[in-house]
Design brief:
Layout (H helix, E strand, L loop, with lengths): L5 H16 L9 H11 L12 H9 L9 H9 L3 H51 L5 H12 L27 E6 L20 H14 L4 E9 L14 E5 L12 E7 L17 H23 L9 E5 H15 L3 E4 L4 H11 L4 H8 L1 H14 L2 E4 L2 H7 L8 H13 L10 E4 L21 H5 L9 H7 L9 E5 L8 H10 L1 H6 L1 E5 L11 H16 L6 E2 L8 H11 L3 E4 L8 H8 L4 E4 L4 H8 L2 E4 L4 H13 L1 H14 L5 H13 L32 H7 L1 H5 L11 H16 L21 H6 L13 E5 L12 H15 L2 H6 E6 L4 H10 L9 E4 L4 E3 L17 H7 L5 H14 L6 E3 L9 E5 L8 H10 L4 E6 L4 E6 L4 H12 L6 E6 L6 H5 L4 E5 L30 E3 L6 H16 L2
Parallel strand pairs: 1-2, 1-5, 2-4, 5-6, 6-7, 7-8, 9-10, 9-12, 10-11, 12-13, 13-14, 15-16, 15-23, 16-17, 23-24, 24-25
Antiparallel strand pairs: 3-4, 17-18, 19-20, 20-22, 21-22
Family: Belongs to the glycosyltransferase 1 family.
EC number: 2.4.1.14
Keywords: Glycosyltransferase, Transferase
Length: 1078
C-alpha cells in the first residue's frame, strides 16, 4: 500500500495542518507530539462536537488498507496550492474522502464475508446431498469413504489421491497418428512474427503463449495440423497482417507425410464490426458469430484433412482448447456442436479480479461490471467449466485459490466423482472437470547455450576486450547509466504497474548500503517517450522510482533505459548473467512468472515473491529464494545473500540450467498430449453415414446409423414415452394422423406410380400422398435439409396465460409460408423448420388446428431443443409408422445427462427454499432428454442464473429455461438448446448457419437471447408476443442483455405494421441486403 513518496509529504502537511489548527500548541515542528496530540487539537470546522483527527484517520485507514492511487491527482493540486487557507481546506476534503473510502471498503469487506458465509452454507448443503445421492451404489466400506471425503475439510485421504499410472506418456510411438488440434484465443492482435506485445492491454503474454504453443504442438509426433483461431481485424488503425484470413506459423513435424495442410496456422475469423479493433470487454455480443465462422472452417478443414490423411473420412479436431473466458465460451459451443472434447486455460480469472478490485474500495460492483463486463466474463468462465473435460493451470495455487471460487468446481466433489468413475460407479449425471498443472513452456531458440558446469565468467572478455560496436546495443544503453558496470547486476523486468512492486525494490536497494556498494540495479520498465503521456498508474510508478533514485542518491547505481524491443530481452538477461547478477520478481502476487523461467534459462539465480506461481517454479528449479514482497528488508537480505555468496550463486545457477528443461515446450506438449489422450474421446458416429446426394441412397452401401438403435427408438417414441398402446383404435390424436400418413407413404413408395392427394382424413390407401412426395416423387431416406440452400426457422413464442400456443403462432407460420412461396426462385431452394418449447404432440395439434401438414416442415425442433424430427423422412418413422426423433441427435446431446438427477435435484432445491408448491411435474411435456415442470407461481421461483448456480455447485451441467409465457420450467442436456440444434443441422446435414433465417417475436422464452446472435439472419416480427419469460432469466447483479446480443446488427431486421406476408418478405430482403455488406 504505502508505495508512493507523496505519502510522506501528505503526512507532513496534515501534521502541520493539525499543529496550525491548535495554534502551534501541538508541536508544529515535532511530528511525534503532533501525532500524539492530534486527537485533542484538531477540531472539525463543522462544530466542536465533531472532533476529527486527520492524522489518526490517515494512519489508521489509508496506510492500513485504502489504495491511495485515486487520491494522487488531488494531492498534486494540494501541493500546487499557494494559499494557506485553500490548502488547508483541500487537505480536509482529502481526509473526508479517505474516511468515505475507508467506510466503503469496510462495507464491501462485510458484504464479502456475508457472501463467503452463504457460499460455505451452500457447499455444506451440497456435500450433504452428495453424501446421500452418491452413497446409494457403493458398498458399506465405500460409503464410509465417500462420506468422509465430502465431509472432511482437511487433507484428502490417500486412497482418493489421483492415480496417473493408467496414463501412457506421449511418445514417438504416436507418430502414425494424424491429429487435428484447434486452439482459440479471440482477443488481442495475434500474429506469428514481430508480435506487438504491450501495444494494448489485450496483446500481452497470452498472445505469445498461444502462438508458441501452436508451433510446439505442430512439431510433436502424431500431430498433423494445429489451427489457432483468433479474430480478424481489418482496420486502418492496425497493421494489414491482422486482416489476413490465414497465416502459416510452421510446416509441422519433420516426420509428417507431406500434405499441403500440415503444420501450424493462425486462422482469423471475422466477427462484429469488420473495420474496427475491439477491446475484449466489447467482444461478448459477437462471440456467437465467431462460433459460426469457426465451425464452418473446422468442417471444411475436416473434409480436406479426410482426403489427405483420413482415408476419405472427415478428421474432426482431437481437442478444442479455449484460452481465457471469451475463447472458453466459444470452445464450449464448438465442442457441443461437434461433440469433441474441450480443454480450458483461464490465464487470468474474473472472480479473482473482481475480488481484488472490490478490496480496493474505489469502485462499486456496478461500476466494475460496467468497465470490465466482469459478470459476463465470469459467466463465460462458468460455461467453459460446464463443457470442459480438462482445465490446464500453471500452478497449484490457481486451482486452490482461484478456480475454487467458481460454482462449477469443487475440489473435494471432483475427487469423489473421479474415484467413482474409476470404479465404474454411476455419478448420476454429476461432473467436475479435471484440473492439472502443466507449466507454460518457453522458446529457447534465442537462448545462447550455457555450460552447466561452468562458473559463468567472461564478463571482462565481454566488456573490456570487445569493441563497443560488437556489443549488443541494449548493453550500451544500460551501461551508460552505471558508474561501475562491472559490479553484479540486480535485474527486474516488468511493466511499470503498482502490482509489480518495483518501488519497494528500489527502497530495499536504497536503504541497504552493503547491497548498493556491491551491486547495480537495472530496471526494465517497458517503453516510454514522455511520462506525462503515459496512463496515470504507470506514470505514478515511474515518477516515484525517479524520486526514490534522487532521495537515496542512486545515480550511477541504477539503470532505467527508456526503450527496448522484444529481441533485446535475451541480451539483457545475458548481460546480467555475465555480471554474475540476480533476477528479481518482487510482484505482490504473480500468477505464474514466465520471466523467472527466462532468467533461469540464461543462468541467472532468482529472488521472487512468495505469492503465487514462483513457489512452484523455485521448487522445480531449486535456483533461488522466495521473499515477502511487502518486506523490503527481506528483499535486500535475499539479494545480498545471493550476490555476496559466490558458492550459493554458482549452485543456484547450475540448478536452474540443469532443470530448465522441465519448462521447455516439448516437455509441456508431451504432458499436454498425455493428459488430452486421457480424456474421453468422442466423435459423432454418423460422420460417414450420409451420402453426398439423394441419388446415392441406393447405390452407396453405407451403414444406416439408426438401425443399431431400433430398440432405443421404440422406447423413445412419442407414445412409448407415455406408455400408450400401439394397437389402439384410430383416434383424432395428431400422432395417429401422422402415423396413417406415414404408413400410406411407405405403402405407396412400394408401388410404381401412387396417385391421389392427401385430404387429411387418412381414408383410402391410394388417396394419401405427402407434400414431400409431391416434391420428390417418393419417400426420402434422408431429410431434404442437405439439399436446401436456405432454411427458414419459425421460432415465435406466442403463448397465452395458460401456456398454450395462440392463433398468432399459426398466423406467423402461415404468413412466412406465403412470403417465401411468393418468390418462385426462393421457394425452390428453401425449406422450413419450426422451433418450439412444446412437445411433439402439442406441436402437431397446433399444426392440425391450422391445417398445416407436418411434412411442410423439413425439421421440427421440439421440447426446447431436446428433440429434432424430420417429417416425411423414412429415418424418422419407427416400425409402426409413427414419428420418432433423430436418434443421432439424442446420442449427441446425451453427454453428461441424467434425467433423474435433474428432476430430483430441482425438486430438492424447490423444497429447500420452501417453494415446492410453486412448481409441479409436467409429465406430458417430458421426454427422455427434457424435464418439464408447471410453474404455478412465477413470483416464488428462482431465476435461471440462480438455479444454474446451484446446479453447478452440485456438479449437474444442464441447460435451463423458463418458457411458454413463464408457465413452464424445462431442463435439457447441456449440449441441447434451440440455438445449438441449428448448428447440429449444419454439422449433420451441411446447411450453413449463414443461410438460415430465424423468425422470432419481440419477446419469448428465456432462451430467446441465445438464438438472436450468430451468423444467421434474424427477422423480429413486431406485435405478435406481448410478453415472454425473459424476466425470469437473470437476477439483479448479473450480466445484461447487451452483453449477449448486439444492440445493432446488420444481421437483424424487424417488421413494421400488421402481420402480412409482404411485410415479412420486405424484412427478409432488408436483412439479406444489409448482411451482404459485411
Amino acid at each position: 500500500m504505502a508505495g508512493n513518496e507523496w505519502i510522506n509529504g501528505y503526512l507532513e502537511a496534515i501534521l502541520d495542518s493539525g499543529g496550525a489548527a491548535a495554534g502551534g500548541g501541538a508541536g508544529g515542528g515535532d511530528p511525534k507530539s503532533a501525532v500524539a496530540g492530534a486527537g485533542a487539537s484538531s477540531a472539525s470546522p463543522r462544530g466542536p462536537h465533531m472532533n476529527f483527527s486527520p492524522t489518526h484517520y490517515f494512519v489508521e485507514e489509508v496506510v492500513k488498507g485504502v489504495d491511495e492511487s485515486d487520491l494522487h491527482r488531488t494531492w498534486i493540486k494540494v501541493v500546487a496550492t499557494r494559499n494557506a487557507r485553500e490548502r488547508s481546506t483541500r487537505l480536509e476534503n482529502m481526509c473526508w474522502r479517505i474516511w468515505h473510502l475507508a467506510r466503503k471498503k469496510k462495507q464491501l469487506e462485510l458484504e464479502g464475508i456475508q457472501r463467503m458465509s452463504a457460499r460455505q452454507k451452500e457447499q455444506e448443503q451440497v456435500r450433504r446431498e452428495a453424501t446421500e445421492d452418491l452413497a446409494e451404489d457403493l458398498s458399506e466400506g465405500e460409503k464410509g469413504d465417500t462420506v468422509g471425503e465430502l465431509a472432511s475439510y482437511g487433507t484428502p485421504k490417500k486412497k482418493f489421491q489421483r492415480n496417473f499410472s493408467d496414463l501412457t506418456v506421449w511418445s514417438d510411438d504416436n507418430k502414425e497418428k494424424k491429429l487435428y488440434i484447434v486452439l482459440i484465443s479471440v482477443h488481442g492482435l495475434v500474429r506469428g512474427e514481430n508480435m506487438e506485445l504491450g501495444s494494448d492491454s489485450d496483446t500481452g503474454g497470452q498472445v505469445k503463449y498461444v502462438v508458441e504453443l501452436a508451433r510446439a504442438l505442430s512439431l510433436m509426433p502424431g500431430v498433423y495440423r494445429v489451427d489457432l483461431f483468433t479474430r480478424q481485424v481489418s482496420s486502418p488503425d492496425v497493421d494489414w497482417s491482422y486482416g489476413e484470413p490465414t497465416e502459416m506459423l510452421c510446416s509441422g513435424s519433420t516426420d509428417a507425410e507431406g500434405g499441403e495442410s500440415a503444420g501450424a496456422y493462425i486462422v482469423r475469423i471475422p466477427c462484429g464490426p469488420r473495420d474496427k479493433y475491439i477491446k475484449k470487454e466489447a467482444l461478448w455480443p459477437y462471440l456467437q458469430e465467431f462460433v459460426d465462422g469457426a465451425l464452418a472452417h473446422i468442417l471444411n478443414m475436416s473434409r480436406a484433412l479426410g482426403e489427405q490423411v483420413g482415408r476419405g473420412k472427415p478428421v474432426l479436431p482431437y481437442v478444442i482448447h479455449g484460452h481465457y473466458a471469451d475463447a472458453g465460451d466459444v470452445a464450449s459451443l464448438l465442442s457441443g456442436a461437434l461433440n469433441v472434447p474441450m480443454v480450458l486455460t483461464g490465464h487470468s480469472l474474473g472472480r479473482n479480479k473482481l475480488e481484488q478490485i472490490m478490496k480496493q474500495g474505489r469502485m462499486s460492483k456496478e461500476e466494475i461490471d460496467s468497465t470490465y463486463k466482469i459478470m459476463r466474463r465470469i459467466e463465460g468462465e462458468e460455461l467453459a467449466l460446464d463443457a470442459a473435460e480438462l482445465v490446464i493451470t500453471s500452478t497449484r495455487q490457481e486451482i486452490d485459490e482461484q478456480w475454487g471460487l467458481y460454482d462449477g468446481f469443487d475440489v473435494k466433489l471432483e475427487k469423489v466423482l473421479r474415484a467413482r468413475t474409476r470404479r465404474g460407479v454411476s455419478c448420476h449425471g454429476r461432473f467436475m472437470p479435471r484440473m492439472v498443472v502443466i507449466p507454460p513452456g518457453m522458446d529457447f531458440s534465442n537462448v545462447v547455450a550455457e555450460d552447466v558446469d561452468g562458473d559463468g565468467d567472461g564478463k571482462d572478455d565481454m566488456l573490456d576486450g570487445a569493441s563497443p560496436r560488437s556489443l549488443p546495443p541494449i548493453w550500451a544503453e544500460v551501461m551508460r547509466f552505471l558508474t561501475n558496470p562491472h559490479k553484479p547486476m540486480i535485474l527486474a523486468l516488468s511493466r511499470p504497474d503498482a502490482k509489480k512492486n518495483i518501488t519497494t525494490l528500489v527502497r530495499a536497494f536504497g536503504e541497504c548500503r552493503p547491497l548498493r556498494e556491491l551491486a547495480n540495479l537495472t530496471l526494465i520498465m517497458g517503453n516510454r517517450d514522455d511520462i506525462d503521456e503515459m496512463p496515470a498508474g504507470n506514470a505514478n510508478v515511474l515518477t516515484t522510482v525517479l524520486k526514490l533514485v534522487d532521495k537515496y542518491d542512486l545515480y550511477g547505481s541504477v539503470a532505467f533505459p527508456k526503450h527496448h524491443n522484444q529481441a533485446d530481452v535475451p541480451e539483457i538477461y545475458r548481460l546480467a548473467a555475465k555480471m554474475k547478477g540476480v533476477f528479481i520478481n518482487p510482484a505482490l502476487v504473480e500468477p505464474f512468472g514466465l520471466t523467472l523461467i527466462e532468467a533461469a534459462a540464461h543462468g541467472l539465480p532468482i529472488v521472487a515473491t512468495k505469492n503465487g506461481g514462483p513457489v512452484d517454479i523455485t521448487t522445480a528449479l531449486n535456483n533461488g529464494l522466495l521473499v515477502d514482497p511487502h518486506d523490503k528488508n527481506a528483499i535486500a537480505d535475499a539479494l545480498l545473500k545471493l550476490v555476496a555468496d559466490k558458492n550459493l550463486w554458482q549452485e543456484c545457477r547450475k540448478n536452474g540450467l540443469r532443470n530448465i528443461h522441465l519448462y521447455s515446450w516439448p516437455e509441456h506438449c508431451r504432458q499436454y498430449l498425455t493428459r488430452v489422450a486421457g480424456c474421453r474421446i468422442r466423435n459423432p458416429r454418423w460422420l460417414t453415414d450420409t451420402p453426398a446426394d439423394t441419388g446415392a441412397d441406393e447405390e452407396d452401401a453405407l451403414e444406416d446409423s439408426l438401425i443399431d438403435f431400433q430398440d432405443l427408438s421404440l422406447r423413445l417414441s412419442i407414445d412409448g414415452e407415455r406408455g400408450a398402446s400401439l394397437n389402439e383404435p384410430a383416434s383424432s390424436d395428431p400422432q395417429d394422423q401422422v402415423q396413417k400418413i406415414m404408413n400410406k407413404i411407405k405403402q405407396s413408395s412400394s408401388h410404381a406410380h401412387p396417385s391421389g392427394i392427401p385430404d387429411g382424413s387418412g381414408a383410402g390407401e391410394g388417396d394419401v400422398k405427402s407434400h414431400s412426395e409431391l416434391a420428390s416423387g417418393g419417400v426420402n431416406k434422408y431429410p431434404l435439409l442437405r439439399r436446401r440452400r436456405r432454411l427458414f426457422i419459425v421460432a415465435v413464442d406466442c403463448y397465452g396465460d395458460d401456456g398454450r400456443a395462440t392463433k398468432k403462432m399459426l398466423q406467423v407460420i402461415q404468413e412466412v409460408f406465403r412470403a417465401v412461396r411468393s418468390d418462385s426462385q426462393m421457394s425452390k431452394i428453401s425449406g422450413f423448420a419450426l422451433s418450439t418449447a412444446m412437445p411433439l404432440s402439442e406441436t402437431l395439434q397446433l399444426l392440425q388446428l391450422g391445417k398445416v401438414p407436418p411434412t411442410d416442415f423439413d425439421a421440427l425442433i421440439c421440447g426446447s431443443g431436446s428433440e429434432v424430427y424430420y417429417p416425411g423422412t423414412a429415418q424418422c418413422v419407427d416400425a409402426q409408422g409413427r414419428l420418432r426423433p433423430d436418434q443421432d441427435y439424442l446420442l449427441h446431446i446425451n453427454h453428461r445427462w441424467s434425467h433423474d438427477g435433474a428432476r430430483q435435484t430441482i425438486g430438492k432445491l424447490m423444497a429447500h427454499d420452501g417453494s415446492s408448491d410453486a412448481v409441479e411435474p409436467d409429465v406430458e411435456s417430458c421426454n427422455a432428454h427434457c424435464v418439464s415442470f408447471f410453474v404455478r407461481d412465477p413470483k416464488k421461483v428462482k431465476t435461471i442464473d440462480e438455479l444454474r448456480e446451484r446446479l453447478r455447485m452440485r456438479g449437474l451441467r444442464c441447460h435451463l429455461m423458463y418458457c411458454r409465457n413463464s408457465t413452464r420450467l424445462q431442463v435439457v442436456p447441456l449440449m441441447a438448446s434451440r440455438s445449438q440444434a441449428l448448428r447440429y443441422l449444419f454439422v449433420r446435414w451441411g446447411l450453413p448457419v449463414g443461410n438460415m433465417f430465424l423468425i422470432v417475436g419481440e419477446h419469448g422464452d428465456s432462451d430467446r437471447e441465445e438464438m438472436l446472435s450468430g451468423l444467421h439472419k434474424t427477422v423480429i416480427v413486431q406485435g405478435v408476443t406481448e410478453k415472454g419469460s425473459e424476466q425470469l432469466l437473470r437476477s439483479s447483479g448479473s450480466y445484461h442483455k447487451e452483453d449477449v446480443v448486439p444492440a445493432v446488427s446488420p444481421l437483424t431486421a424487424s417488421t413494421r405494421g400488421e402481420l402480412k406476408a409482404d411485410e415479412i418478405m420486405r424484412a427478409l430482403k432488408e436483412v439479406t441486403k444489409t448482411s451482404s455488406g459485411m
